[in-house]
Amino acid sequence: MRFFFLLLCLANAVWFFWELHSGAFNAPTSGDSTAPPILLVSERENARRGAAISAIVDRYSQSSLASATQEVSAFFSQPHDLQITQRDPQTADSKARENRDRSGCLRIGPFVDRLEMRRWLAAKSLTAVDSYSDEFTVPGDFQVYFPPARDAEQLRINKMMLRAKGLTDFWPIPSGDLKGALSLGVFTEKSRAILYRDQLVKQGIVAAVRQRNRIRPVWYALIRQGVVDRLQDDAVTVTDADCRSHRIGE
Question: What is the model's pTM?
Answer without folding.
Answer: 0.41
